[in-house]
Amino acid sequence: MSDPVQNNAEDIGSVPSFFREHGEFLQSLDEVATSASNVDSWALPDASEEEMRLIREMKKTLDVYQEQPTCLDPYLERIVSRLMAVVQEYVYAFHDSMEKPESLISVTRMDGIFDLLYTLCKVRGYKVILRFFPHGVTDVEPVFATLWRFSVDFEASSWPARYALLIWLSLLAMIPFDIETIDSGMTDLPAIAALATATNMSLIKRWVELGKLFLCKPGCEMEGAAVMLSRLLSRRDSAAILQPEFIEWAAREITDAARPVDSTNAIKSGLQIGSVLRINGALRVLCHLFSAMDSHTSLDAQIPLLLDIFQMDAFDQHSITRKLISKAVQRLALLMLPAANAEMGRAYARPSLRANLSNNAAYASASERDDEAAESPDVEVPLEMEAFVGILLQKLHDKDTIVRWSAAKGIGRISERLPLALAREIVLAVGGILKDETLVDDKGLIDVAMTTEYSWHGALLCLAELSRRGMLYAPALRQVVPWVVRGLTYEIQRGDYSVGSNVRDAACYVMWSLARIPNPSSRRVFAEMSTEMATTLISVAVFDRESNVRRAASAAFQEHVGRQSAFPHGIAVLQLADFFSVGIMRNAFVVTSRKIAEFDEYRHPLLHHLCTVTVYHWDLKTRELAVKALRELAPLSPEYVRTHLLPEIVANVTSPFLAVRHGAITAVAAIAETIAVELVSHTDAAKMVLEVADSVPARYIEDFGASLTLAALATYMGSLSRARWNIGDAQEKYFALFELALITCKTVDDIVVDFTSFVDACSLTPDQRLRIVKHTQVASSGTSRESFVLALGALEKQSDPELLCSLVTEGTTVEIRRNAAAALGQFCTRARDGGRLSIMWEHSAISALSRGLEDHSVDNRGDVGSWVRKQSLHSLASIFAGDGQTFQRLNECDDELAIRLLGQILCSTTEKIDRLRVAAGRMLEILLHEQRVEAADSRLREGLVQLQRLVPAQPNNFSGDAGVKGSEFSWADPEAAFTRIVQALSVSDERLRQPLFEGLVSTGSAEPLGKFAVGAVAAYAETLPETGATVAASAQPEWGVDGIVAELTRLLLTDRQTSKIINPALIVADQLIEQGALLAAAPDSWIPLYRATQRVAFKLRAPLRLSLCLKLYGSLALVSEELSRMAVGSLLAHMAHPVLRIRQTAADQLFSALCIHGVVDVGDDGDEIGRLVSETEWAQESAGVKDARAQLTALVRPRLAQDRN
User: Fold this and answer.
1) Which of 283, 525, 700, 968 fits as disulfide partner to 324, beta carbons 3.0 to 4.6 Å?
2) CA 516 – CA 559 distance, rounded (Å)
3) Under a CB-based contact definition with an 8 Å cutoff, are residues 331 and 337 in contact?
4) Partners of 302 in the beta sheet?
5) Helix (H), strand (E) counts: the chain
6) What span, in angstroms and rounded, lies between the C-alpha atoms of 291 and 285?
């Protein structure tokens, strides 16, 4: 019976909550254990293939739980015990075989089992796995002897096996018996070259020497040996003798390895990798040993030597070594200090329910006085402690995070055991790191430009660790919190990037830990600083560039709300700035900030942070989002923005720094547009806004960075225009700036939008209009010409669309044609809204855009013509969507254009590019459901009515999202789109059917969408009648399967020199025949297709197209007997083609037709024909090929003639 709890775990989600695969895993475990416990197989070098396969699957299953290893806990004992039972039996047998040479056991037989044990240790941790290892006294010597044997030749055994034995020995080293009493001598151990002097030693000394051997090995063996040695040396029966000796050896090992190879240039030479491994191995043992020791009395003589080692400069280039030194220093310091005293904790923290629930200020003040006067019990602090703390404080400046993090935790742990007076000195020292190299101006602002992010990061991590342990008393909080708040916005630009995200993240960690301080006096401090802390955290949570920092600030805010309850509107704000809301940058900047700013306490700080920090950010995307956020927040407090923020922003308009200048100009634009009423009513503010363009020096719009400055000025002028500011006589200056921006900037879409607003507010003079038109002429440079073509769409009041219509099809670059199509759509839309769009203009525009749909230009960037086609579809949609009579007028004016346009749109719905197909689908829906089609001629009207039934209105699909909730169909889904649009082939009007079929054929030859298009046509063909009836001898058949064959024939008969549809038609015809979709066609409909293929292949030299023809011959040979004779004859003729690869292709198709499918009866000559076709090297030029071709022709030609008779 299945476990109901386990079954419920399946519904929780993709994150595993239980060991779901435990049934299969345990079954595989039993099979592996049964196989591995077979004694007869232990002499084999490797396990069976089935056993190794099961082990690989089990390892793969365990790796899934690496992030949630506790899910394995209910089954760990059974798993580990089962494996160790096999390993224990193997180890005993291996030990016995060392005494009996005739009994051979392979060293590598259990590699799979040991590898599985290592995977368990990797996923769950060796400390947990060791709980289930056997640890009897009788296990010591067999395990030791096995590891000794495995160490004789490291190449012969695997490192997972040695690692498993090392951690097993680390457990056995803790047995509560004197090791001397279980030492049998073990004189039969093989010799190890590196341990030649250890042969006659006692077991415990050989044990130590064997551990030393592994300390220079990279990877897990070093860690396993360090754990083993630390537990062995910390035994009471061996500590007094072996500890000093081993520590002296470790010090010698580190000192010798730290000597540079080149003594003349120690810094340049550095350390060899072998030396680094020796140092790391010795340091790892010391770290574990100091943690396991009970007293430091045996180390008094070695402490000066260790201090010298810890302060050596030879390890500066190796982060792991520096981290191990930091860990060894803190553990040695903790060993020399008494354990943390409960009285010391109470003397400082004084936790009580009354204190936590009380809001009495007098009580908090009294608690604060008690904290200041608190004294800890007398503790004797060793003199070396100052050196240890100094080393760790220095490590806080380290360049590697792992070293700083280790040092921060060490200082926190040491401070917890020191007297309060010394602990407070450490707090002040750590706070002093933040003050180094910083400047504080008259306003109290902290300048961190000269600081290093490493020091700030290390200091903040350390403050967080001290705070977690309750070491920040009330006066220290008042000194530290302002610096932590400054750390929340720490960022220094370094060229085109910045540093400081780790500092901001650490500052959030400090803020989080401050909320967990247990002493009640902190409530008073937090009450004083709560507003500043809350507003800064929220500002970072919504306006920081990095998502991890925003989420960290949100988590810190949540911690304070839950524990201190001092933040204003805490729960309400937290619901808005939760983990998910601040995770998406745009949502955090624009949406979440707007909702939080509705609270008075947060509104001004958010605006201040936005206008003093974020709008000047070095990242352009962040600045743009900041300006969007400013547009949302400024209307909430227009007076504050005008009086406090606008003057400083305007002052930064002339900043020499590009990012600051760009951010300031765009911020002024946002303010001028959103709170125009507030600004216009105050003369000084209005004057500041209107003088922005004049105050920008000329060099900033001419030198490096001019494009960004000009783009910002364009935004500024567009905002003034939309807000209808009175710019006075600045119209000519603004036009000149727009003109320069269009010439200089590469991306001008937003500039053209602002220019359009400017044109609407301030009409252009004829001379200015002429200047715009002149820039579109060939004499202008390419980029600026493209920009001004796009700007022509704003000139509908003073021009006609003829220039744009000509540029859509005759533009020299694809960018010009694309921009002309976009401008033409804008031109017509604006002209129609103004009542100036004539029928002639409308017809010219639609005709030009229709020609734009035929742009299939290709260059080294790919299908660049798709840019023009997509923009033409968008422009057509804007023209037709605004007026339901447009198609009717077009049909009355030019019915051929109307039908051609509809056919082109149907063809575009089969495009390979998703966005283009979405645009075409939207345009088709507009034509069918938003336009009046009653006035069309009867034949066209019938086709439109049929299309309306096949393509229902789907307005939500314009976005192209296939997974839009509530949408059953999307043009962005190729399979769904082709399945639906292929039904339109049943439209009776061939003027609509032919373009659609041509589009399906074109897409059907391309991967990966070709399979969807061909599959849709094949599925549709199955619904058609088998034969088509003809109305007259000369008339084409009605649409059916014969119609598909006829359409393929028509496409193959297009001009061979210019047509791009022939190759796709060959491919699609071959695939449809192979899928059996056309087998229901009438026999007489295939002959024209074969003749068309012959026409394509006649005297053709293009290898690709000719190969496609040959493949189609091979498929046609399967249709009927008559076609088989004709196709085989054509294939046989191409066996003599001068292109070698064509011969080989023809031979392959001929072999398939004759020898596999047997389309022609060759009688007894079948074997000979098969041998000639398959064994001849047709891709080579030799006499044997000619002879084989002659023999083949002599055998096959008579058979073809015989079948014909």
Assistant:
1) 283
2) 8
3) no
4) none
5) 61, 4
6) 10
Bridge partners, 493 (sequence order): 498
| DSSP characters over 125-145 | -HHHHGGGS---GGGHHHHHH
Q: Are 1017 and 1026 in contact (CB under 8 A)?
A: no
Mapping DSSP to helix (H, G, I), strand (E, B) and coil, where does residue 8 land? helix
Supply the mean pLDDT for the chain: 84
CA 390 distance to own-chain centroid: 42
DSSP bridge partners of 439: 447
8 A C-beta contact, residue 607 and residue 637: yes
Model pLDDT for residues 1150-1193, shown as the tens digit of each residue? 888 887 777 777 677 777 888 888 878 887 777 778 888 888 88
Instruction: Please state, in angstroms and rounded to a whole number, the distance separating the CA atoms of residues 902 and 995.
Output: 9
**Please, what is the end-to-end C-alpha distance for the chain in angstroms?**
74
Residues 61-68: contacts with CB within 8 Å, 24+ apart? 61/21, 61/24, 61/25, 62/119, 62/120, 62/123, 63/119, 63/123, 64/16, 65/16, 65/19, 65/123, 66/122, 66/123, 68/15, 68/16, 68/17
CB–CB of 733/702 below 8 Å?
no
Per-residue model confidence as pLDDT tens digits over 762-793: 888 889 998 988 888 866 555 688 899 999 88
Least confident of 189-198, 577-586, 633-642: 189-198
Give the integer Cα–Cα distance in Å for 1147 and 1140.
Answer: 11
- Picking from 247, 218, 217, 213, the residue whose alpha carbon sits closest to that of residue 230 is 247
Instruction: Please check whether residue 119 is in contact with residue 72, taking contact to mean a CB–CB distance below 8 angstroms.
Output: no
CA 423/CA 416 separation, integer angstroms: 7
Quick check: helix, strand or coil at residue 414? helix
**What's the pLDDT at 63?**
93
Of 1017, 1024, 1156, 1009, the residue nearest 1073 (C-alpha): 1017
Q: What DSSP designation does 698 have? A: G
User: What pLDDT does residue 355 have?
Assistant: 47
Q: What is the chain's length? A: 1205
What is the dihedral sign for C-alpha 1032, 1036, 1038, 1043? positive
CA 978 to chain CA mean position, Å: 31
Q: Phi/psi zone of residue 599: left (φ > 0), alpha (ψ -120 to 50 degrees), beta? A: beta
H runs (alpha helix) in 952-1059: 974-981, 990-1004, 1010-1021, 1041-1052
Residue 354: other Cβ atoms inside 10 A:
9
Residue 9 makes CB contacts below 8 A (sequence gap 6+) with 16, 17, 18, 20
Distance (Å, whole) CA 447 – CA 493: 13
302 vs 173, residue with greater confidence = 173
Q: Judge contact between 557 and 537, C-beta under 8 A.
A: yes
Q: What is the pLDDT of residue 103?
A: 59
Tokens of 322: 């520096």
Least Cα distance to 831 among 883, 870, 871, 790 occurs for 883
Question: What residues contact residue 526 under an 8 Å CB cut-off, 6+ apart?
Answer: 514, 533, 560, 564, 566
Long-range residue pairs from 1024-1031, CB within 8 A, at least 24 positions apart, any chain = 1024/1080, 1026/1080, 1026/1081, 1026/1082, 1027/1080, 1027/1081, 1027/1082, 1028/1082, 1028/1085
Contact 195, 173 (CB under 8 A): no
Per-residue pLDDT of 807-841, as tens digits, reads: 998 888 899 999 999 999 999 998 888 888 888 88
Q: Dump pLDDT digits (tens) for 139-169.
A: 998 999 888 888 877 777 789 999 999 999 9
Q: How far, in Å, CA of 738 to CA of 769, rounded?
A: 13
Q: What tens digit of pLDDT does each residue of 788-804 get? A: 999 988 887 656 788 88
Average pLDDT over residues 520-526: 76
pLDDT at 458 over 90: yes
| Closest by Cα among 927, 843, 939 to 892 | 843
Please determine, for residue 363, whether its predicted confidence score (pLDDT) is greater than 70. no
